[in-house]
Amino acid sequence: MEHYMLRETYEQPDALRRTLLEEENIEKVARILSEKEYRFYLFGCGSSHYICLCGKSALETFAEVDAYVTPSSEFYEYPPPQAKSPAVALGVSRSGETTETVRAISKANQLGALTVSITNTRESSMARNSKLAITVNAGEEKSVIMTKTFTTQVYALQLLALHYAQNRGKEVGKQLSQARKIPQLVQETLTLNEKVRELALNCEEQKFIFLGGGPSYGASLEGSLKLKETSYVHSEAYHPLEFRHGPMAVVDEKTLVICLVPERPSKEYVELIKEIKEKGAKVLAVTSGATVSANQTLTIPKVDDTLSPTIQIIPLQVFAYHYCVGRGLNPDAPRHLKKVVKI
Ligand code: F1P
To answer: What 3 state SS string does 212-248 have?
Structure first.
C-alpha cells in the first residue's frame, strides 16, 4: 500500500488484537481505580481529545461514574477545582510527549489527583510522570494522521471502563464479550473500502458536516478532523439536534452531511435527516441497521452502541484518505501539522 495512512488503517484489526493482549494490565489499573469513589477528568489534544469523549461515554454508561472531558490546555490553564478531591486525571496521547498533555498531567499531580496515562509509547514523559500507565501496543504509527492509535486508545478506554464497572458490581459481562470481538468487527468493516472510495472520488460537495450523538460524538469530531487534516477542506461536527440551533443555515446543494446513526435513532434524528435532505444537502448515513432517508448508506457491523465508535470511525478514516488522494494530495505529508506538537 502506497501510503502509511492507508497501511495503518488496514493494520487496525491486528493493532486492536495487540491492545487486547494488554487486558491484564488494564484490569490491574481498573482494580486500583475501584479502591475509592473517584470522579474522572480526561484530557488530550486533537484526536486524543476526541478519544477522551468516547472514553467518557464508556465510563458513564458502563460504570455510572462522573466523567468530564477537556482539551489538555484547558485542564492546566483553568484547572477544575473539583480535581483536588478524590479524582482520577487520565491523559491520552499517542506519543506521550505533547506539551499540553504533559503539562496537564503535572498540574493534576500538583492537585493531588491519581494520574493515569494512556499512550502508544512505553517510555514517555507522560508515562513517567503518571502514577499508573496503560500502553495500547498498536505498533509504531508512522503516519502523522492518527488511525490505529485512535481506535486502540478508544478500545483501551472501553476495556478500562468495562473492568472498572465490573469491579463496582455492574453486570457488563455481555458488553465485555462483545468488546473482545471488536478487532474482528473492525476487520469486517474494512471491506467497505471500495464503496467508500467510490463515494469519496465522486464527491462533488464542498462543505462537510458530521453528526453524531452520545458515544458517536467523539467519532463524528474525529471524522471531521481527518478530512480537515488530510484534505484541507472546511468541515464541522455537531450533536445531531444541536444542528438545528443555527448551523443548519449552512446547508445547501454543496453540502455533504455524514450522519452516524445508532441502530434505534430518536424520531427527532430521523426527522432531521429528512429535513437536511429536503434542503438540498446530500446525506450519507453510517449505521448498523437504522432506516433513514439518506442518499447513501454504509452498513457497519452491529455492536453495543457505547462500543460503536471504534467501528464507526473506520469508513470515515477511509473516506478522508480517498478524498485526499483523489484531490492529488499526500496524506502522509499533511500541511501545518506535526506528528508530535510541541509548544
Ligand atoms: C495528538 C495529535 C493529533 C493530530 C496529529 C498530531 O498528539 O496532535 O491530534 O491529529 O496526529 O498528533 P498526541 O498527544 O496524541 O501524541
So the answer is: CCHHHHHHHHHHHHHHHHHHCCCEEEECHHHHHCCHH
Report which of 151, 89, 74 is spatially closest to residue 120, judged by C-alpha positions.
Answer: 151
- Taking residues 181-199, report their average pLDDT: 98
| Other Cβ atoms closer than 10 A to 10 | 16
Residue 307 has pLDDT above 80, yes or no: yes
Contacting residues for 122 by C-beta, under 8 A, at least 6 apart: 135
d(CA 127, CA 122): 7
* CA-angle at 174, arms to 170 and 178, nearest 5°: 125
Mean pLDDT calculated for residue range 272-292: 96
**pLDDT for the residue 1:** 65
pLDDT attached to residue 216: 98
Residue 66 cell numbers, joined: 462522573
Task: Using alpha carbons, list the distances in angstroms from residue 62 to 67, 170, 239.
Answer: 12, 8, 21
Is the per-residue pLDDT at 57 higher than 70?
Answer: yes
- Residue 70 backbone dihedrals phi, psi, to 5 degrees: -140, 160
Q: Which residues line ligand 1 (CB under 6 A)?
A: 45-48, 93-95, 98, 101, 144-146, 229, 337, 339-341
pLDDT reported for residue 27: 98
Task: Specify whether the CB–CB gap between 196 and 325 falls below 8 A.
Answer: no
Q: Does the predicted model carry a pTM greater than 0.85?
A: yes
Best residue among 221, 227, 341 to mutate for probing ligand 1, ranked by most atoms within 8 Å of CB: 341
Ligand 1 probe mutation, 146, 332, 336, most atoms within 8 A of CB: 146
Q: What's the confidence (pLDDT) of residue 82?
A: 86
**Is 302 an active-site residue?**
no
- What are the φ and ψ backbone dihedral angles of 89, each rounded to 5 degrees? -115, 115
Q: How far is the CA of 138 from the centre of ligand 1 (A)?
A: 15
